[in-house]
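Hi support team,

I'm filing this because I wasn't sure whether my run with flavin mononucleotide finished correctly. The job status page said complete, but I'd like someone to confirm that the output block is well-formed before I use it downstream. Pasting the exact inputs I used:
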Amino acid sequence: MLERLQKNGVYKAIFERRDVREFNSKPLPEEKLKSILLAGHHAPSVGFMQPWDFILIESQEVKDSLAKACQKEILALAIHYEDEKKTKFLSLKLEGLKEAPVTICVTCDPTRGGGHVLGRNSIPETDILSVACCIQNMWLAAYAEGVAMGWVSFYKKTDVREILHIPPHIEPVALISLGFTDNYPQAPILEKENWEKRVQINNLIHYDNWNSSKHNLFK
Ligand SMILES: Cc1cc2nc3c(=O)[nH]c(=O)nc-3n(C[C@H](O)[C@H](O)[C@H](O)COP(=O)(O)O)c2cc1C
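And here is everything the job wrote out:
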């Protein structure tokens, strides 16, 4: 079991980890990159299938192509948002993708482990969920290393497959920007932008069945 200080460290990382959009030009030391990748590789995974791969992107040309694909998708999605929200949605920073010293495409190989991966037979999307656990481990490790990390998912998978030469059966789950920032957000950027607030946790807790009346577990 963890000592008190170690325990505080875990919760500090959980509560203070942020999605970062702005990066400065400071390079990412290889040791930090390796620690973050290793943390990702130690994530839980359904049937221990470890469906992830990491494409490390340092070429500016490739980063720019990815940012262009994301920009295209943002423009396409913007028709769903009205007025102020639309403007804010459009202004969400894609510069981060181009500025961060390292971008990682984290992928999911649904065929890894063969046709009968333990546990995945019932809920096939557990392979992607395993990759999400991997990315969360990377996020927490990045926080511990003092490294800023951002998750981008506004893209058409076909575009990203084409740019990175990813075979058709492999899912590009996320584009991760890693580097350093001069503006580490104290709260979620979307909260600061009045896009969304954190939901009251009491409203999410049910007792015995979905329709139970409210309790105040958190006073
Ligand atoms: C599955 C997933 C996909 C995301 N995709 C994007 C994205 O495409 N662009 C973006 O700006 N943020 C993206 N985010 C980051 C969220 O906007 C962010 O986590 C959320 O606003 C809460 O902020 P926090 O991570 O700082 O707590 C993504 C997060 C997750 C978990």
